[in-house]
Structure formats: C-alpha cells, structure tokens
From TrEMBL:
This is Pyrrolo-quinoline quinone repeat domain-containing protein. SUPFAM superfamilies: Quinoprotein alcohol dehydrogenase-like. It comes from Nocardia terpenica. It holds the Pfam family PQQ_2. Residues 51-231 form the Pyrrolo-quinoline quinone repeat domain. PANTHER family: CELL SURFACE PROTEIN, OUTER MEMBRANE PROTEIN ASSEMBLY FACTOR BAMB. InterPro entries: PQQ_b-propeller_rpt, PQQ_rpt_dom, Quinoprotein_ADH-like_sf, WD40/YVTN_repeat-like_dom_sf. The lineage of its organism: Bacteria, Bacillati, Actinomycetota, Actinomycetes, Mycobacteriales.
C-alpha cells in the first residue's frame, strides 16, 4: 500500500498508512467561534467519492459508501478496509439527474449478528446491484441485480436507506432529479435465505417515486413508506400516489392514506413523498412538499381522506428524529419539534431559527442537523431549538445526515467523511 499523508498544520504532522486517504485535522488550522468560545472545527477523511447515505455505526467502526461504488470501514479516523464493488454510471449516461457519478446513494444496512453489510449500487451499465459484504473484512459475499421491472433501469435511483427486517433486505426506488424517463416507484424485498425478490409497484399511472432518504417506519408487522406524485391528476382515477402505504413483509399493501387533494397535489408537485413516515407512539407522522403535516393512526391510516392537517408550515424533506412523544421534523425552514399526544393531537413546540435543512438525529443530549446549503453542522437544544454549537463543514450532499459514534458526530460530505466532537 502507498502511505497517505495526513495534511496538518506545522505542529500536527503524522503519518497514516492508508491508500487513497487523506486525514485533515482542521482543528489544528482553524477554530470556529460559538457563543464567545472556541470550538474545534473537526477532522475530515477523504474517500474516493461523495458519501450521500448516512454512515452506519457499530461499536468503534463506521461504515460509509461512496458514489464511486466503494464501501469503507473506518475506525479511529483510519480506514480498516475498503472494497470497490462496481464502477458507477456517469450522469451523462442517465436521462436526467444531479449526482455525478451515480454509484451507492442509499444508506447501507448492517446485520451485526451475521457480520454482513448490504449496499445497492448503480453500475456503469445502468443496473442496480445488491451487494453483501463481510463487515469484518470487506469480502463480497453476495451479488444480485435488482432492477425494478416497471420501467427503464437508467430512470431509477435507489436513494432510500436499505432496511433489514423479516429475514429480508428492503430497497426502495424512485426517479432521478428531474423526474424524467420511464419509471414507477418500487420496493424490492430480497429474501436472504434464497435471494428470491418480491416487488411492490407504487403507482398505476407511472412515477410515484419512493425516494425519501431515510428508512420506512415499522409497526404492527408492517413497513410504512411515502409515495410521491404520480401522473394521474384532476379527473383521473386514483393511482396510489401522494400517499403513505403500509406494506406486509412480502410487500402486499395492507393499508394506505392519501389526502383528498391528491389529484391537485400530483399536478402541482406537492405530494407527501419527500418525507419518510415517522412512528410516534401509535401514530404515523407525515408531512411533505405542501407544508401540511398529518398525524395518522398507524393501525388504520384512513384511505383517501379529507382529514385536516394536524399542523402546517413544514415543507419536509427526509427523515425525522423521534424521542418519546416528540418528532423533530426535517423542514426546509429549519428543524421543527412537534409533540404528538396519545390522542393524536399535534403541538408545535419550536422551530429552529437557524437554517438547518438536513435530517436531524439525537445524540449527546442534543439535536444534530446539517444545513447542506451553507455547509454547517448545528447542535440544537432539544427543549428550545436554540443553536448551542455550529461547525463549518466541507461541501455537503443533499439530505446530509449525521450519525453518532460515541462522543463523535460523523457526517458524509462530497469528498468523504467529517468528524466533530459531540461533547
């Protein structure tokens, strides 16, 4: 292996024997002032591409996957192993999109008991391939093409987090940025005992992408996904889009909710598909592009319903963080905390005053959320929403989501990973 240099300030030199990795100790070069105190900006680890999916943490190991089609295991800011599973497809090979190149976009899934890590990558010939890797060594243990059978493969993007449940890996699909080409939202369920694949087709009219970047909610033995806008508009029959769907383990639809305004929502691109459903107690919380938030009974979603929104003013993109009866929502105007009572009543507790538009997490007693427009990581007081710390970051991908690794917050960037103190 070639030795990769750790580029530090003059007083902080050290060596790292890792191929193609540059560890940059930003705290040696700059301090970021927060509330009159100096806070170390963090460290970065350069990988071979952008990390769009939230990193996965297990013990002292962080797993990350890049748009260049490479999977990494990182411990103590150094690469333990890396496996290049496939070359990605350039944006020029897609009908539209804004990821270049396009490789592994969705968050990996880790089976800690079986020591298996799963990723889906888009290959240079526009196929979507599920890989299983030994989480200890990075050796490839399975490889299975899972192109959705409802459209043209290049038109699909596998953005949502992979999910392990019921002895299966679930992978959801939507379209590329620009919503072009021939595709229909889909979910694949890969049975890990025999590699058989079951499919759910999200729309009867086309489109209806399942693309929100987090995981589906799970309750009552069901998986809850949001579905985006379809081709059916005013005057057309309902096409199963602009909805929350509850799927059985083998992907039969058991229940759904759609606002009575679904046709107008589809026509105006104001659907529910931009947020992952969140489970709060016995309720599903969902908002979307229109800014209206709904609180649904997880055991009876309600079908097509004229129920009034439970709260407004939150155009949500991504996954919420949940603690007890409070959901911290990924609103474009900033994280918003909403308390959900046992009867489903929603109370907005606060709206962050900083422009934190990413997906929030809870760690070390604070809400951590990134603003991918400005390249800033915020720590918010969960009781008030006030920013208690903020850190400059490298350029971030859309929907950048932090992960907690002990006393460290790790964040995917357009060049690799960034690490920040969580104290």
């Amino acid at each position: 292996m070639n030795s990769a240099r750790a580029i530090l300030s003059a007083s902080c030199h050290r060596e790292s024997a890792m191929t193609r990795v540059i560890l940059t100790a930003l705290w040696c070069a700059a301090l970021f002032i927060v509330g009159g105190s100096a806070t170390a900006a963090g460290t970065t680890l350069t990988l071979d591409g952008a990390v769009y999916g939230q990193p996965v943490v297990s013990g002292d190991t962080i797993y990350a996957a890049t748009e260049n089609g490479t999977v990494y295991a990182v411990a103590n800011s150094a690469v333990r192993w890396q496996t290049h599973v496939a070359d990605p497809i350039p944006e020029s090979g897609l009908p539209c999109g804004d990821i270049d190149p396009e490789g592994i976009t969705g968050r990996p899934a880790l089976d800690t008991a079986a020591h298996r890590l799963y990723v889906v990558t888009e290959t240079s010939d526009a196929h979507h391939v599920l890989f299983g890797l030994d989480s200890e060594s990075g050796a490839v243990t399975m490889q299975l093409t899972i192109d959705p059978p409802f459209g043209d493969s290049p038109s699909y993007l596998q953005r949502p987090a992979l999910t392990l449940a019921n002895g299966r890996v679930y992978a959801a699909f939507g379209g590329n940025a620009g919503d072009c080409g021939n595709y229909t939202g889909a979910v694949a369920a890969v049975d890990l005992s025999n590699n058989n694949v079951a499919w759910y087709q999200a729309s009867t009219s086309g489109r209806g992408g399942i693309w929100a970047p987090g995981s589906p909610a799970q309750a009552n033995g069901l998986l809850y996904y949001s579905v985006g806008n379809g081709n059916a508009g005013p005057g057309a029959d309902y096409d199963n889009t602009d909805s929350v769907v509850a799927l059985t383990p083998d992907l039969r639809r058991a229940d759904f909710f759609a606002p009575a305004t679904w046709a107008d929502d589809n026509a105006a691109d104001k659907d529910l598909g931009s947020m992952n459903p969140a489970l709060v107690g016995s309720h599903i919380v969902i908002a979307g592009k229109a800014g209206d938030g709904y609180v649904l009974d997880a055991a009876h979603l309600g079908g097509i319903s004229s129920v009034a929104p439970a709260f407004t003013g939150c155009r949500a993109f991504g996954a919420a963080a949940v603690a007890d009866d409070i959901a911290y929502l990924p609103c474009t105007t900033g994280t918003t905390a909403v308390r959900i009572a046992a009867d489903g009543t929603a109370t907005v507790l606060w709206r962050a005053t900083v422009p934190a538009n990413g997906q929030p997490i809870l760690a070390s007693g604070r809400v951590w959320v990134a603003d991918w427009h400005s390249g800033t990581l915020y720590a918010l007081d969960p009781a008030t929403g006030a920013a208690t710390q903020q850190f400059p970051t490298d350029t971030l991908p859309h929907f950048a989501t932090p992960a907690a690794a002990g006393s460290t917050i790790v964040l995917g960037t357009m060049t690799g990973l960034a690490f920040f103190p969580a104290q």
